[in-house]
């Protein structure tokens, strides 16, 4: 397929950018076209991948393009076309695997409850993997062998859900969903915080404790006052 940055008229020093998501091997043609009314005439054109200059072919008088055969992740990255004349114009294409979306990066729940984590991708991955991060280690979650603790569902081709049952304090930590595409992997991390079931009662317990202290103080004062009167 072809991706273009049309009407390349950005002010000098103001780059144009476009993100292109790719999940499978394909051939991509990137093209920059200068508007016919642009005051930038006969510019010097350079295509770069990062800092590396790459060759291009001219399609028309005001259009320059490159064709890329994307077979693996090594061809992903940022490609820029740079037009130089009296000023410099730049357009950049960012080629990357699809990103993962999730409900949030932090989940707070309570002991004995069930934690639910959902990850979604704009494209269909070949597989989903869930794991917990413990220090520098990645501990894979195997729902089939730990069915009493974990349930993993593929809600649709591009949506996965992890449920952690009967939560304990030991379940708190960082969890990750990993989507594998033909062109590479992408992951999303979520932090799970597990609170004690008494946590919601703490403010109430604090108030009750303050009341008890106040009542005890009043009673002791009255007892002391009565003893003093008898003397």
From TrEMBL:
Pfam families in alphabetical order: Ig_3 (PF13927), V-set_CD47 (PF08204)
A GO BP entry: cell-cell adhesion
Stored SMART domains: IG
Domain Ig-like: start-end pairs: 15-92, 98-193
TM helices/strands, residue ranges: 204-224
SUPFAM superfamilies: Immunoglobulin
Gene Ontology CC: membrane
Origin: domain of life: Eukaryota
Record's keyword terms, sorted: Disulfide bond, Membrane, Repeat, Transmembrane, Transmembrane helix
Protein's UniProt name: EMB protein
Source species: Xiphorhynchus elegans
Lineage of source species: Eukaryota, Metazoa, Chordata, Craniata, Vertebrata
